[in-house]
Amino acid sequence: MAATGSASLQPAAWQPASHDGGGTVDWPSVEQQCDAQGCWPRLFIVGTQKGATTSLFGALHLEGAVCGTVMSEAVAQAASSIAGFSAKEAHIFDLSDSTWSALAKQPWMYRSLYRVQDCPQRTFLDATPRYIRDPAAPARMMELMPASWVPQLRVVLTIREPIARDLSWFNHKLNRAMYQQSKSGTPLTGHDFCSLSDGSNQDGYPTYEGEVMCRKQEMDNCLNSRGERLNEGEGEGTPQNLSKSHAHMAPRDAEQLGDYGECVEAIWHNKRMPTRSDARSSESLSSWEPPLLAWGLYLPQIRAWTRRILRSQLLVLDFDRLVARPDDVLPRVTSFMGLPALQKNELPHENEQPYARKVDVISCDTAQALHGVFGEWNDRLALALREDVERSNAPPQEPLFEGFNTTVPCENEEHVWLAEQQQEKAEWKEKASLHERAPPSYFV
After folding, report:
1. Virtual torsion, Cα 64, 66, 70, 72, nearest 10 deg
2. pLDDT digits (tens, 9 = 90+) for 247-283
3. Structural domain of residue 373, as residue ranges?
4. Which CATH number goes with the domain that contains 405?
C-alpha cells in the first residue's frame, strides 16, 4: 500500500504558521515584495481544472480584491510558447523544460508580470489550475522564489469529486476539439483522444466510456511495468526515457507498486513511470505529463505541495461546498489570503454555451472502472484532511472535509445530449425561472 502510519499531510517536525484571520494587517511591505522590476505574487489558486477556479478568481477579481497577471514584453519574447496565458493564468511553473530553463535564470521576468503601477495594493494572484497536476510546479516555485518570500505564500486548491471532474473535462475537451475541427476541417485524431487511436469509432467521435477504458489502461501500464526497474544503476531496467541524471530520484522499482495511488505517488515524487505517449520520448523528466486519470488522485498531488510549503499555507476546499455555499466559503478564502471581506460573497454566474455533444449520464461499466481507480484514494484523502484539521496543521479557515457526496448518474449506456437538445432544455429552464420570478400577470 502507498501510505502507512499517520495520514497527515503535514510533516510532524513542521509547525503551522499563525493566522490572524482578518484584513491586510500583516501584508508584507513593499520592500519585501517588490523592486523596480516587479513584485512577487503572494496568492495562488493551483487547481483543480474544472473545479470552479475561474469562478473563484472572478469573485475576487470583480470586486478588486486581487489583481491578475499583465504580460510583460520581456516575458512575451522569452516565452512565446506560453499557452493559455491570461489575466487569471500565468502558466509559468508548467512551462516546457527549455522555456523554463531560460526563465529560471532570470527570476525578474516572473516578477515583471506583477507591477505596483498595475495594482497599488499588491494583492497579486496567479490562478493557474494546471499547477496542481504538474509534478514540477511546486519545486519550480521554490527554485524561482527567494527563501525569505516562501513563508508569505497562500495557496488555494479546490478539489472536485474525481468522476464528475473527469467527465466535465472530457466534455470541455471534446467541445473545444470540435470547435477547432469546424475551423480546420480535419477529423479528430488519437492525438486528441486516445480511444480514437485505433480508428474503431465509426462516427469519428470518442465516447466517454472508450476514453476511460483507454486512460485506465495507462494506469494499468504503470502497475504492469514489472520489468522496468527505477533503481539507479540497474541498466536495462531503467526506462529509456528516464535520464540517468534523474535515476537517483527513483529508489523504488515497479514491482513494489501496489495500486494506482502508488504509481501516482511515484509520479509526484519525480519517480515517473512511462505512459502511453512516453514510449519514444526523449524529453527530460519534468516535461512529462502524468496519466490523465491521475489528475483525480488528489492526495499525492497535495503531498507534493506540502513537501515544499507548510500545510497551513495550503487551503483545500470542496468544489461542491464552494458552489452551494459561497457565502460560507468565500469569507474563508479572503481571511486565509489576508484580504478585506467581499461585499458580495457570490460566485459569478457563467452563461455556458451548449456543447455540441455532451455526456450527462455515463455507463455503469464506466462508473465501476472509475470507482476502482479513485474509491480507496478518496477515502485516504478524507482521512488525511480530517487529521490535518484535528491536529491544527491545516489553515484555521479550512472547513472539515467529510468526503465527496456527489455522484455522476449511470445507466446501461451513456447518454449523449446533442446541442439542439441542450438548447431546448436551457430555454425551458429559463422560461421556468422567469415564471418563478415574475408576477402572475407576466404570462397572461
Report:
1. 130
2. 222 323 333 445 676 777 776 665 544 444 443 333 3
3. 1-202+292-439
4. 3.40.50.300
